[in-house]
Amino acid sequence: MHYLDEAKQLATLDYQADPKVRERILQLTNYDEALVPTYELPSPLAKPDGGKVQTAFEWVNFQRPAIFKIFQEQMYGKIPPRPDQTRFEILSIREDALDNTAIRKEVRLHFSMNSGKQHAIDLLLYAPKSAATTPAPAFLGLCFKGNHATTDEKDVRMTGAAYGDPALLAEETRGIQSARWHFRELVKAGYAGAVVCYHDIFPDRADGWGQSVLNLFEDLTGFSGAHQNYSSIGAWAWGLSRAMDYLESDPLIDAGRVAVHGHSRLGKTSLWAGACDRRFRIVISNDSGCGGAALARRMFGETYLFIVNAMPHWFVKPFRKYIANEENMPFDQHFLIALSAPRPVAIASATEDLWADPKGEFLSAFHAGEVYALFGSNGVNTTEMPPPDKCLTADISYHNRIGKHDQTAFDWQHYVHIANKFLKQTNE
C-alpha cells in the first residue's frame, strides 16, 4: 500500500483511543523527497470565475477578503472581538535592567466583559534606555514556558501557570529559553522586546477552552460547540493583537514599527496574527512547518494527519476534512503568507528540522511572491533553495539555518538585519 493511501485509511480511525494508530501515523512520516506526491498548487491570484487578479487594488479589496474568510471558516477560526473593557496595570518598572542598558516593565492586561467575565495576561517588556526620549521599534512575540523563562533576570514574575501548566512555577524554569529571545542583543541594536506566555491566552491542551480568553465571549464551561468557530491559534493571535494595544499606549514604543514573531507553533500563530492585524509592520515565522509556512500538499514531515489529531484545538473543527486530503484544499500556506502583502515577511527553517519541511517553507515563500509582485515588491526570486546559513533578504525573506528546531542567535541576526532595512526611520 502506498503511504498516501494508508494515510487516508488512518484518517478514518480513532487517533485518541488507539495508541497503535498514533504509533503508525508517526511511523508513516515521510522524509523522502522521492515520495512527495505530485501536486498542483493553487494560485492566490486565481478568481472563482477563472480569471486572474491583475492589480494591487483588486487584491486588497476583493481577493484578499475572500481568502481571509476561507482561512477563518476552514482553518484558524473567527477573530474574537475586543473585550468590553481593557485596563493596563503596571506591575513593576526597573530603570537599570540588563546591566543598566534597558528599561524593564511588567504589565498586566486586564480584560473584562459587561457580563462580569474577566481574564488577564502578563506582558514583559524590555526597551533600550534611549527609548525614554526616542520611542523604540519593537519585536513582539509569544513564549512557551512563561515570561520568566525568556530572560536571565531572576526577579521577573513567573507567568503561564495561572491558566496553563503549574510546573512553570518551578524555579528551574527561570531563564531556560532566554537564548531564544536575545533581549540584550535587541536592546543593544536599538529595539525593544515584548513577550506574553501563550498559556495565559489559551492553555495549550485540548481541554483548555474554559480557561482561555475565548471564555470571555462564549460559555465554555466544559467543552462546547466553540470549536466549530474558534481555535487556540486564533486565540493566541488575538492575544498578540491585545499586546499590540498595550504597546500603542506605551511612550517607550514606536507602535508604527512593531514586528511580530514566533517559533514553531507560535510561528504558525505569528503568520495568522500578521494576516489578522495590519498594525504589525513585519511578520516573522521561525520553523513553523505544517499549518504555518510549509506547503501542506508536499506531505513531508509533519502533516495534518498527525497535527489535527494530536492537537485538535489548534484549528477549527471544519479543518478536519482536509486530513490526508490536502490535494482538495482550496488554498495552501503560501496564501497565508500572501495575506500580509505588501508588508515584509520573514520565513526561517533549520537544516535538521525535517519535521517542519524546510523545502516546503521555502517554496511557500517563493509562491507567495506573485501577490507581492502586484505591489512592486520583491519576493524570493529563485526556485532554488539558498545554501544553509545564506540569508535572502527582501520583502519576503528566507534563510535555512544549520541546526535543529530552535530560534538562535543566527536567526535573530537576520531578523535584526531585516528590521534595520524596513523599520529604521529614514533620518536614522
Quick tags:
single chain, 428 residues, alpha/beta, 2 domains, 9-stranded mixed β-sheet, 12 helices, 18% strand
Write structural notes for this entry.
The structure is a single chain. This protein has 428 residues and is of the alpha/beta class. It folds into 2 domains: 225 residues, no CATH class; 175 residues, no CATH class. It is built from 12 helices and 9 strands. Strands 1-2-3-5-4-6-7-8-9 form a 9-stranded mixed sheet, with helices on both faces. α6 crosses α7. The longest helix is centred in the first third of the chain and has 21 residues.
SSE arrangement:
Layout: H1 3-10, H2 19-27, H3 56-76, E1 85-96, H4 97-100, E2 102-112, E3 118-128, E4 136-143, H5 183-188, E5 192-197, H6 232-249, E6 253-263, H7 265-276, E7 282-286, H8 304-310, H9 333-338, E8 345-350, H10 358-367, H11 369-374, E9 396-401, H12 409-422
Parallel strand pairs: 4-5, 4-6, 6-7, 7-8, 8-9
Antiparallel strand pairs: 1-2, 2-3, 3-5
Helix pairs in contact: 6-7
Averaged pLDDT: 94
Q: List the helices and strands in order.
A: HHHEHEEEHEHEHEHHEHHEH
Structural class: alpha/beta
Number of helices: 12
Number of strands: 9
* Radius of gyration over all CA atoms, rounded: 21 Å
How are the strands of the biggest sheet laid out side by side? 1-2-3-5-4-6-7-8-9
Beta fraction: 15-25%
Main sheet? 9 strands, mixed
Tally the structural domains: 2
Distance between the termini: 61 Å
Shape, principal axes of CA atoms: globular
Give the helix proportion (percent range).
25-40%
Low-confidence segments, given as residue ranges, are: none
